């Protein structure tokens, strides 16, 4: 994974006072390093974005959360050419024709399983083909 200068400091600042979310992110980051080693990462104000040729996934602390979501969680976002039909998808929107943005709520490291990482890898492949 290609890391920008100050990556570690930026991640610490992003997760300030959120150690449980930071631990979830670290687990996600390790899985992403294995799944898409050629990707790059950028820490932004509202999310941590992952890029191949284009943005394919992001991790964020939910700002507006549904009441049913856990208090401490991470939102994993990725884009595909189709809408996934899974109970794990918390929110799916189609901002452009045939471009679906999916959000998955994660509150335990074991949720970063092969199914989720397969979706993220598919999102990487989709972003590469644009």
Main attributes of the structure:
single chain; 130 residues; alpha+beta; 6-stranded antiparallel β-sheet; 3 helices; 32% helix; globular
Describe the protein in words:
The protein has 130 residues and is an alpha+beta fold. It has one domain (7-129). It has helices spanning 7-14, 19-35, 114-129; strands spanning 40-43, 48-51, 55-60, 74-80, 89-96, 99-106. The chain has a six-stranded antiparallel beta sheet. Strand 1 and strand 2 (48-51) form a beta hairpin. It starts with 6 loop residues before the first helix and ends with a helix.
Q: Average pLDDT, to the nearest integer?
A: 95
Number of helices: 3
Counted beta strands: 6
Taken in chain order, the helices and strands follow as: HHEEEEEEH
- So what's the oligomer here? single chain
Query: Which residues sit in consecutive blocks of at least 5 with pLDDT less than 50?
Result: none
Instruction: Output the strand order for the largest sheet.
Output: 1-2-3-4-6-5
Describe the secondary-structure layout.
Blueprint: H1 7-14, H2 19-35, E1 40-43, E2 48-51, E3 55-60, E4 74-80, E5 89-96, E6 99-106, H3 114-129
Antiparallel strand pairs: 1-2, 2-3, 3-4, 4-6, 5-6
In short:
This protein is α+β, with helices and mostly antiparallel strands and 130 residues long. The protein is 32% helix and 28% strand.
